[in-house]
Specification:
This protein has 709 residues and is an alpha/beta fold. The chain contains 23 helices and 24 strands. It folds into 5 domains: 132 residues, NAD(P)-binding Rossmann-like Domain (Rossmann fold), CATH 3.40.50; 88 residues, Regulator of K+ conductance, C-terminal domain (Alpha-Beta Plaits); 98 residues, Helix Hairpins (Orthogonal Bundle); 115 residues, 3-Layer(aba) Sandwich (Rossmann fold); 75 residues, Ribosomal protein L7/L12, C-terminal domain/Adaptor protein ClpS (Ribosomal Protein L30, Chain: A, 2-Layer Sandwich).
C-alpha cells in the first residue's frame, strides 16, 4: 500500500452504499481510520442498530445507489473507495459498474458470493475486490468451537501457520530458566503475554524481552506448523474394522446383554415401528420354515432333511400349486399335511409381500442413491453445530478439516440431505433435535442460524443443558452482542458483521486481506503489503515497521527469492527494479490504483498481523515515534575482533552507515545518538554481548558518555 500523495489529495472520501447491518459496521470500521465517510441508503431508516451512527458519517444521501445523479450527489469523484454492501448482489454489481464509469480510480469493495462473476469484474474493472460477509468469520466460529489453544489457522505462500494461546504449567519445558525473547525463532513469534492471572496485553510488544518465563504465564504466539494428521477417532474406526477386534466383541457377547438390547428395541415403539414389523415378519417366516421342515420330515422319514427344507421354502414362496398341482409324489402326503401346506403358502405370501414392501419403501426413501450412510451421533466430547446455512456449512467443513467429532442440526425442512454426507445430521423440532444431539455431554455448541432471536433462544437452552460447554453464538446487532456477552460471560458472542466489516474497511485502503482471526476480543487481520516508491514503508527496517506501527511481520517476499517466514527485523524494505510495463503479480487492480497505466516494479512484499489501529497508522504514515526513545551506551570491546563485529551489529540493527558505526566503535566508550525502539535496542545489546562488547540500555533523557554517532 502507499500513503496518499499530493496529486491524490482530492480522493479523500470513502463511500458506503447500503446501511444494513454490514453497512453500519463498515461505517464504524472506517471511522477508526479517521477518514471522511459518505453513506447512501435507499430509504431513511427510523432506527439504527448502532447507537449514534448518524454522528459518524459526514453526509447521508437517500436514493438508489445505481443512479448516476445519486452517486454524483455523494461526491463519487472525490471518493478513494466505494464499499458496496447492499443485501441485493445484483444491485451491488450494477453499482460497481456505474461507479467505475464515473471514477476510474475509485477502489471497489463489493459484497458478493458469485466467485466467477467476481473474477470477471476484477479483470475488467480493475482495483476491485469482493467478499462474502457470511464466509469471512466462519473460521473464527470454527476455532472458537474447538475450545483449545488454537486461535487461528491459515496458509500463506504454501506455509501453514497457526496462532496458539498457551498457559504454561509447572512442568512445561519453556519454564526452565528461559527468557521471553528466546521463544522468538525462525518459525515462531510472540504476540501477547500475561502474567499472574492478568488479562492479555492490549497491543503487540507490550512485554519485556528479558523477562524470565514462569508457570502460570499465558502466551499467545504464531508458529509454522503442518495440517494435523488423522486423529484417534479415525484410528478407532480402523481398529473396529480389524477382525481381531470383532472376535473380541463376539467373546464379550452374552445372553443378558442381548435381552437388554431386545427390550430397548421394543421399548422405542414410535421410533422403530417399521423395523419392528420387519423383524416380526422375519421371525414368523423363520418359524413357518422350521415347522414345514419338521412336518415333512416326520411324514416321510426316508425324505432327506435338505429336501424337507426346500419343500417348506417353496411353499412359503407361493409354490403350493407347483408342488401339488397334478404332481404325483413318490411318497404319500396326508390330507392334513396338504391343508397345513396351503396355510404355510398363504401366510408366506402375505409375509413375503410385507418384506418386499419394506425393502421397496427403504429404496424409495434413499431416492435410489447408493449414498454413503451418515456416521452415528457422537456420545460425548463433540461439537454441535446448530444452523446449516452458508455459515454453518463452512463451519462444519472447517471442523471436519480439524478432525473434530461433530453433529449438525438443521431446522429447515427443505434442507438438502445430500450435503455434508460425512456428518451426522439431525432434522426436526428444536427440543427433540437438541435432545438427540447429546447436548449435555457435548464439548462445544455453535449456534449460527440466520435468525438472531432464534440464536439467542438456542444459546440459552444450550447453556442451561450444559453450562460447561464452549458456547459460540452468532449475532448481527451490536446491542444484542454486548448484552448477551454480559448475560453469558463464558460464551463467545461473535457479531458476524462486525468481524467482516473490518476486512471490508481494510480492503478499502488497498490492502489485500488474506485472513482474519480473533484474539483477546480483537480482530487481527492477516494483511499483505506491496512496497512502492512513494510508500511510507519504503526504506524502513522491518523492526521500524513492527515497533513503530504496531504490526507483526510474519512473511517477507522478494522477487526471485524464496519467501522468508518470520523474517529478520534487520531487512530493509525497498522497491526493486523491473522492466517498464511488467508487473510481477499480474494485478490489474494495482495498475488501476496507480493511475498511470503502468505496472509497479518488482517491489518487496510483506505479510503482517495487524489490528485496525495498526492499519490506520500505516495508512496515515503516523508511526509511534515517541516509543523510539532508547539509546545504547557501549562501555568497551574486549578484543579487536569485537570492535569489528560490534560495528557490523550496530549497522545491521540500528540502520546507520557502516562508516559511522566503525568510527563509533573506535572511540569507546560512547552512546549511540540514534534513538531506537526498546525491543530493538535490547536486541542490539544482546548481539553486542555475543561479540564480546559490553553495552547497556539508557533512556534518551539520561544520556551517558561524550562520544556519539
Amino acid at each position: 500500500m502507499r500513503y496518499t500523495t499530493k496529486s491524490e489529495k482530492s480522493l479523500d472520501k470513502f463511500l458506503v452504499c447500503g446501511l444494513g447491518g454490514l453497512g453500519q459496521h463498515c461505517v464504524v470500521a472506517l471511522k477508526k481510520f479517521e477518514v471522511s465517510v459518505i453513506a447512501i441508503d435507499k430509504i431513511q431508516p427510523q432506527d439504527w442498530e448502532i447507537p449514534n451512527l448518524a454522528d459518524l458519517w459526514d453526509d447521508l444521501v437517500i436514493g438508489d445507489c445505481r443512479q448516476i445523479n445519486i452517486l454524483q450527489q455523494a461526491k463519487i469523484q472525490q471518493c478513494r473507495a466505494a464499499i458496496i454492501v447492499t443485501s441485493n448482489e445484483q444491485v451491488n454489481a450494477e453499482t460497481a459498474l456505474v461507479v467505475r464509469k464515473l471514477n476510474p480510480q475509485t477502489r471497489l469493495v463489493v459484497r458478493s458470493s458469485k466467485q466467477n462473476l467476481n473474477e470477471l469484474l476484477s479483470e475488467h474493472l480493475g482495483n476491485f475486490v469482493a467478499f462474502e460477509p457470511t464466509q469471512l468469520p466462519a473460521s473464527t466460529f470454527a476455532l472458537a468451537a474447538l475450545g483449545t489453544e488454537t486461535l487461528g489457522f491459515f496458509n500463506i505462500e504454501g506455509e501453514w501457520l497457526r496462532v496458539v494461546k498457551r498457559v504454561l504449567s509447572p512442568g512445561d519445558r519453556w519454564c526452565y530458566g528461559r527468557l521471553l525473547h528466546e521463544l522468538n525463532t525462525h518459525t515462531r513469534k510472540i504476540l501477547y503475554i500475561s502474567s499472574d492471572g492478568a488479562s492479555l496485553s492490549e497491543s503487540f510488544y507490550e512485554w519485556e524481552p528479558d523477562t524470565p518465563i514462569k508457570p502460570g504465564d499465558t502466551i499467545v504466539y504464531i508458529e509454522a506448523t503442518k495440517p494435523s494428521a488423522p486423529t484417534s477417532e479415525k484410528l478407532a474406526r480402523n481398529i473396529e474394522r480389524n477382525p481381531w477386534h470383532l472376535l473380541r466383541r463376539l467373546k464379550r457377547f452374552n445372553w443378558l446383554s442381548f435381552k437388554q438390547q431386545i427390550a430397548e428395541f421394543w421399548r422405542k415403539s414410535d421410533e422403530n415401528q417399521l423395523q419392528q414389523v420387519w423383524v416380526a415378519c422375519l421371525i414368523i417366516v423363520g418359524f413357518l420354515l422350521l415347522v414345514g421342515t419338521v412336518l415333512y420330515q416326520l411324514n416321510n422319514p426316508k425324505m432327506s432333511l435338505i429336501d424337507s427344507f426346500f419343500v417348506s421354502a417353496m411353499l412359503l414362496l407361493g409354490g403350493f400349486g407347483d408342488l401339488f398341482g397334478g404332481f404325483d409324489f413318490e411318497f404319500p402326503v396326508s390330507v392334513w399335511l396338504r391343508f397345513i401346506s396351503l396355510g404355510i403358502t398363504i401366510a408366506g405370501t402375505v409375509l413375503v409381500g410385507i418384506l418386499y414392501s419394506f425393502l421397496t419403501e427403504r429404496l424409495l426413501t434413499a431416492r435410489f442413491q447408493l449414498s454413503k450412510r451418515r456416521p452415528p451421533i457422537p456420545q460425548k466430547d463433540h461439537v454441535v453445530v446448530v444452523g446449516l446455512g452458508r455459515v454453518g456449512q463452512r463451519v462444519v467443513a472447517l471442523l471436519q478439516e480439524y478432525k473434530q467429532p461433530l453433529v449438525g442440526i438443521t431446522l429447515n425442512t427443505d434442507f438438502d440431505t445430500t450435503i455434508l454426507p460425512e456428518m451426522p445430521l439431525i432434522a426436526g423440532s428444536l427440543k427433540e433435535s437438541l435432545a438427540k444431539a447429546n447436548l449435555n455431554t457435548a464439548k462445544s455448541v455453535v449456534v449460527v442460524t440466520d435468525e438472531e432471536m432464534l440464536n439467542l433462544e438456542i444459546g440459552l437452552m444450550a447453556y442451561d443443558a450444559n453450562p460447561g460447554c464452549h458456547l459460540v453464538i452468532r449475532t448481527t446487532g451490536q446491542g444484542l452482542s454486548e448484552n448477551l456477552a454480559r448475560l453469558l460471560p463464558s460464551a463467545q458472542v461473535l457479531s458476524a458483521y462486525a468481524v467482516a466489516a473490518e476486512a471490508f474497511a481494510g480492503a478499502a485502503f488497498g490492502e489485500e486481506i488474506i485472513h482474519l482471526f480473533r484474539v483477546n476480543q480483537k480482530t487481527i487481520l492477516v494483511t499483505e503489503y506491496q512496497i512502492e516508491a512513494d510508500d511510507t514503508l519504503n526504506g524502513l527496517l522491518l523492526s521500524e515497521v513492527a515497533y513503530g506501527y504496531g504490526v507483526v511481520p510474519i512473511l517477507y517476499i522478494k522477487e526471485q527469492e524464496a519467501p522468508k517466514l518470520m523474517p529478520s527485523e534487520d531487512i530493509r524494505l525497498s522497491v526493486g527494479d523491473a522492466p517498464k510495463g511488467s508487473h510481477p503479480r499480474g494485478d490489474g487492480a494495482e495498475r488501476s490504483a496507480r493511475g498511470d497505466g503502468q505496472s509497479p516494479a518488482f517491489a518487496d512484499r510483506m505479510v503482517v498481523l495487524a489490528t485496525t489501529n495498526g492499519l490506520r497508522r500505516i495508512e496515515h504514515g503516523t508511526n509511534n515515534s515517541m516509543l523510539k526513545s532508547w539509546q545504547v551506551h557501549v562501555e568497551r570491546a574486549l578484543t579487536a575482533e569485537a570492535v569489528f563485529e560490534g560495528a557490523n551489529a550496530i549497522t545491521r540493527i540500528s540502520g546507520c552507515s557502516l562508516t559511522m558505526a566503525r568510527n563509533f566503535m573506535n572511540n569507546l566508550p560512547g552512546t549511540l545518538h540514534s534513538p531506537l525502539y526498546k525491543h530493538q535496542a535490547q536486541r542490539l545489546i544482546r548481539e553486542l554481548s555475543k561479540s564480546q562488547v559490553i553495552a547497556r540500555l539508557v533512556p534518551m533523557t539520561a544520556q551517558q558518555g561524550t562520544d556519539s554517532i
